[in-house]
Amino acid sequence: MNSTSTAPRLKTSAMIASIADDNQRTETAPFGHALAELAKQRPDIVGMSADLAKYTDLHIFAQAHPERFFQMGMAEQLLMGAAGGMAKEGFTPFVTTYAVFASRRAYDFIHQVIAEENLNVKIACALPGLTTGYGPSHQATEDIAIFRGVPALTILDPCDALDTRQAVAAMADHPGPVYMRLLRGKVPLVLDEYDYQFEIGRAKLLCDGDDVLFISSGLMTMRALDAAKILREQGISAAVLHSPTIKPLDSDTILAQVQRRPRLVVVAENHSSIGGLGEAVAHTLLMAGVTPAGFRHIALPDAFLDAGALPTLHDRYGISTSSICQSVRSWL
After folding, report:
1. Chain segment 27-79, per-residue pLDDT in tens
2. Mean pLDDT of the 96-104 span
3. Annotation marks residue 76 as catalytic
């Protein structure tokens, strides 16, 4: 930082800070509170974690329903195997860990024990994509790519606290295994301003525009909404289509929005450029024979990312609001 800079000096805590911007409304532990509340009416729900309950907000459930909480220790494969056993006995396990551990360390158990048996296990994993600055060991930048090829596995990437709260009940009601990318701690609240209701398998148009169509998931939807407001002040009209379900993708809504009018289509995701929402949307358009006015992809690079403060990394890798605006202006 040079001596004339007015930007605050970022501390080490910024590596694990909330993704919420300054003065942004937040809710604390929406997943944990929603699950604890739902479990009051659903005696089949149990909570299971691999030594990470506090860091995946499952401790809220554990405090409310201690007799239904199972701490499996630092053994993610055992965690998934035990969850499969619970599901076979008629329970609905909600399993939490970090996304890197579920996708890299426990993949075979999720594939063989849970997905192949089509068991009713709900897997909610914290630190998806670039939501931690602790480097590649903790950054699950490829989890969607890893899981998209698993038959029968539903994949969710909610945007904010409202999305997460509503997704919990939907996951519990949905038959079969579900993998959800989990935002933890103080989670931004933005979608309550858009008359939004989460539904598995459905994308929702949050705002409309004539020049750009953002198709986004996860935290990138809130970034796309912020970018749309800034771009509108600069004379660029942008629509935002939120796709919280990555698999099964809402192809009908995506195709309908792309074909409504000629617009630059920009897919934005907190995931590697390989194997995520961008490729899923591109495949959908190609197979339907639909050619947009333009197609661009905002995603993390196919690389092992740096460690550091999250605001710095989000700027560096092009997923901050200012970076999105700059990219869109250059493409137009």
Report:
1. 999 999 999 999 999 999 999 999 999 999 999 999 999 999 999 999 999 99
2. 98
3. yes
Largest CA distance in the chain: 64
- pLDDT tens digit sequence for 197-224: 999 999 999 999 999 999 999 999 999 9
The strand pairing partners of 97, in sequence order, are 125
In DSSP notation, 158-176 reads --SHHHHHHHHHHHHHSSS
Which residue type occupies 282?
Answer: A
Gap between the Cα atoms of 162 and 27, Å rounded: 9
Closest to 113 in 3D by CA, of 79, 73, 69: 79
Report how far residue 312's alpha carbon sits from residue 263's, in angstroms, rounded to the nearest whole number.
31
State the catalytic residue, choosing from 27, 37, 67, 76: 76
Q: From start to end of the chain, where are the E strands? A: 26-28, 45-49, 69-71, 92-98, 122-126, 154-156, 178-182, 186-188, 204-207, 212-216, 238-242, 245-247, 264-272, 294-300
Output the pLDDT for position 283: 98
- 3-state SS assignment for residue 275: coil
Helix and strand tally (H, E) in the chain?
A: 12, 14
Query: Residue 150 CB: number of other CB atoms within 10 A?
Result: 18
What does the alpha-carbon distance between residue 78 and residue 222 come to, in Å, rounded to a whole number? 35
Check the CA dihedral 123-125-109-80 and report its sign. Answer: negative
Q: Left (φ > 0), alpha (ψ -120 to 50) or beta: where does 208 sit?
A: beta
Report pLDDT digits (tens) over 67-77.
999 999 999 99
**Is residue 8 scored above 70 in pLDDT?**
no
Is the distance from CB of 240 to CB of 192 less than 8 angstroms?
A: no
